[in-house]
Amino acid sequence: MKITVDFEECLKDSPRFRATIEEVEGDVCELESKLDKLVKLCIGMIDAGKAYNAANKQFVNGIRELAQQSTKDEVIESSLTKFAESLQEMINYHTVCFFIPIDFDLRKFKEAKKQFDKVSEEKEAALIKNAQAPRNKQHEVEEATNILTATRKCFRHIVLDYVLQINVLQSKRRSEILKSMLSFMYAHLTFFHQGYDLFSELQPLMKQLGGQLDQLVVDAAKEKRDMEQKHSTIQQKDFSNDDTKLEYNVDADNGIAMEGYLFKRASNAFKTWNRRWFSIQNNQLVYQKKFKDNPTVVVEDLRLCTVKHCEDIERRFCFEVVSPTKSCMMQADSEKLRQAWIKAVQNSIATAFRDKGDDGEKLDRKSSTSTGSLDSGGEPKERSLKGESALQKVLAIPGNSCCCDCGQPDPRWASINLGITLCIQCSGIHRSLGVHFSKVRSLTLDTWEPELLKLMCELGNRVINQIYEARREELGARKPQSGDPRHEVEAYIKAKYVDRRFIRRPSDEELRTKVVSLSKQEKRLSSSSEHLPPRAPPPTPKLRPGSNVSGQSGQEMVKTLGETKIHNAAEPPPMPMPATLPPPSPCKEMAFYEPKEYSPGLQLFWASCARSLPDMAEALAHGAEVNWVNTEDEKRTPLIMAVQGGSLVTCEFLLQNAANVNQQDAQGRGPLHHATMLGHTGQVCLFLKRGANQNAADIDEKTPLAMAVEAANADIVTLLRLAKMNEEMREAEGPYSQSGDETYQDIFQDFTHMASNDPEKLNRYQQYEPQRP
């Protein structure tokens, strides 16, 4: 009900006015109560709507996941994806309905009422005081009269303001409520209208799917009947002689001539037997534990092996596949299956010889070199340096006799990825930076591999400070000294290595000059101790008298190689070099081209090939990504270019700075492939120690081992096969096996030291030339 208060009536302050005011105040109180209730209900509605939308979003996500899982069924995938998109749009439309429809402010009315009540009481008190003033006390009469006059004047102002707020409230009440509710209704109208339009567009697809669904129901019923019939037919078959179904098929569509389960005896000390899924494919005998596992190659070339029955062990139905490097004992489930597998291996050998037509000389060379290895020439081996030996070598480098960061003399610690020496306080700060900034090692307590020691000797404090402190004096930064508070030293080290505040950034022209210079730098291959011209392969090393390599297990094979050790390569027999032998260093063949953009990554790329560790460290300091990919040069990485440059220390530096040892180029070849192709035995040894995947194949499906066998490189073949055998032994021994066989570790250590101290004895083979069809 609309109530209007007259301005003239309020000045009289009549009983009618008071009654009207009382009625208005009661109405406003009731209005406030109703509005509060409506707001609470609206908030509950909004919360429920948001919960509904959240549940809807989860439902839509479930539909999307089901669509992704149904990629093999195009109809289901496309339909579910379309439905999910439509429902998501409906959820987005629904959010327009989530707002509080009424926002009615009563604060001004309440404030005016408060003042009106107060001045009304004051006026009533003034009237009473004026009425009680005695006529014989003139000063009290005047005082009461003055107070009443002032109070009435104030009352008129306050009551007029109050009446104004009442009338404004009555007028605004209608418009605001109707406006809010109308907006709320329009929001719902928009929601349902957009939903109608959306589903109208979706309706043709729904009708189409409805027609397809009828056919799908019919097809599903037919397939169910066919499967039930096939199920009954198979149940009626006799499976007593099912093992005879296993037959050798050289023309199988999937390239697998034969496959099935066999028990395989492990080469560990316990000789445990494990059931594995074996197959003959691509002229190889392989097995796998699970379908998703990469197959493990038992015999790489069946032409080089023989197969025979084994009746001298306790188990039945056993047979043995013997290759020049190892033997593998297996057990079938029955005699018929054993005969089938033996016949399959024999047929595979015959088929391989007939199809490939390789001459016996090449096979003999491969089989003989597969067990070949290197010898140190009778000289005592230099073991990994530790203690004072490593300390003396590193501190002898100019600038290394004092801590790189604070200058304290006689440092005993080092950062191996930066190539600097540190005092004990700075080493602790470097450790706190994390290994992605600095890898700390003790010069006296830790063991130092020779390639790591060479890395420390090729860099040093003076080289690194020229990079990381190039602008220190220009910026006025004080270098801490020994004895300064730890927090000052820590702040300086973080500014130096983490924030790289003192590095001088090169201009584009300086960077271009640097890259061009590195790309054209003379490699001095003739005087390098790490990359010599290839020489002819040595004669095949002979095993101990009475040793039967073909019947040895993997562990026995490693021990035999450990005892025969390394063949003397000082005087290899003369052998004519092939006319098509490529130049010794691929870096010389690479013509420099003008790249689209000069960057620190490109500097690292060419510096790795040029074997310039200072330029590599500078590129990394300027922000070069250690795994930077040169998209203009077959996606090669700095580590691959380091292999091309022939430097073992360069590869070690990149690996210490988190280079990916398995990153491949455009030909699918990783660093291990390139090192094998170039005959860099030391690099092959380094990559295998750092976890290189020797089973990775390039686009020609050639693994590093296949390349080494084809190039007749006995040393690399030996390393790769030893690594594979050691991996198989550890796998067979279970999760509690040790890090590897001691003889295997000794052989790898021999190769490591020879690669660093006598590299000329390892670079004896011609470079690999991939065979193209």
Automatic annotation (TrEMBL):
Disordered as annotated region, ranges = 356-385, 511-553, 753-773
Give the membrane topology: Peripheral membrane protein
Q: Which UniProt keywords apply?
A: ANK repeat, Cell membrane, Coiled coil, Endosome, GTPase activation, Membrane, Metal-binding, Repeat, Zinc, Zinc-finger
Pfam hit, one: PH
Gene Ontology terms, cellular component aspect? endosome membrane; plasma membrane
- Keyword Zinc assigned to the entry: answer is yes
Q: What's the protein name?
A: Arf-GAP with coiled-coil, ANK repeat and PH domain-containing protein
Record gene name = acap2
